[in-house]
Design a protein that fits this description.
Oligomer: single chain
Structural class: alpha/beta
CATH topology of one domain: Rossmann fold
Largest sheet: 6 strands, mixed
CATH architecture of one domain: 3-Layer(aba) Sandwich
Number of helices: 10
Strand content: 25-35%
């Protein structure tokens, strides 16, 4: 489904990613773990079309997305839930969700998808007419995920979904991620909570200083000395 190969990314003269290669198969949850500043957010932003690649390729379902603008990447079936949620605080929950359905193919079914989102996150139904800025952090994260689902993606990019949330809310968010995946959406998950990420992912990559160090199943990543030293500080 997703194939990233030879990816290099710069911010001006500073290089953030070196020759990164990852893939996500249809129906998979794949996680990217690594220390702060490793380039994880840069990687998902580049896949989503939010930051240009210096070289390399991003291919989705056989189509080269590398030079496409973000809205065209979304139109191909890739949606991102950004770090920090980035909801529109003065717009209602409903309005935020409807913004996610700007993809032409998603518009006819947007009411049906809204029903699916509020089934997944019942608290959004309770806050439906409220400004998003009045929601708790956990509710805003649910809204950000719901907004991405409104585009009816085949691949969901999740950037640090547990950041700043209480453990009980994180449980709800990760349960929802598994449900979304069971409904046929592949997931690329960037997550600071290594154990939670590995508990839901079928495979993972360790990214350190802009380079992929390890690609392995969760059990091997848990046992890896590189993961213990660079991510867990052990």
């Amino acid at each position: 489904m997703l194939e990233v190969s030879g990816l290099a990314v710069h911010y001006g003269d500073a290089q953030a990613l070196w020759d990164v290669a990852i893939d996500v198969a249809d129906g998979e949850i794949v996680t990217i773990i690594g220390p702060n500043g490793a380039g994880k957010t840069t990687l998902v932003h580049t896949i989503a079309g939010l930051h240009p690649a210096t070289r390399g390729r991003v291919v989705f379902d056989g189509a080269d997305l590398t030079r496409l603008a973000a809205h065209r990447v979304c139109a191909r079936g890739v949606a991102i839930v950004p770090e920090g949620r980035r909801v529109f605080p003065h717009m209602t929950v409903e309005e935020n969700l409807c913004l996610g359905a700007y993809r032409k193919a998603a518009r006819p079914a947007h009411r049906e998808v809204i029903e699916r989102v509020v089934d997944l996150f019942p608290r959004l139904a309770e806050r439906f007419r409220q400004p998003a800025g009045r929601l708790s952090g956990g509710e805003q994260q649910m809204l950000a995920i719901g907004r991405a689902l409104m585009a009816r993606p085949r691949l969901l990019l999740l950037d640090e979904p547990s950041l700043g949330l209480a453990p009980v809310v994180v449980d709800e968010v990760f349960a929802a991620v598994q449900t979304i995946n069971a409904d046929g959406v592949s997931v690329l998950l960037v997550e600071q909570d290594v154990e939670r990420a590995l508990s839901v992912a079928g495979r993972g990559y360790l990214l350190v200083e802009g380079r992929i160090m390890i690609s392995a199943p969760p059990e091997r990543l848990r046992e890896s000395e590189d993961v213990r030293q660079t991510v867990l500080g052990i």
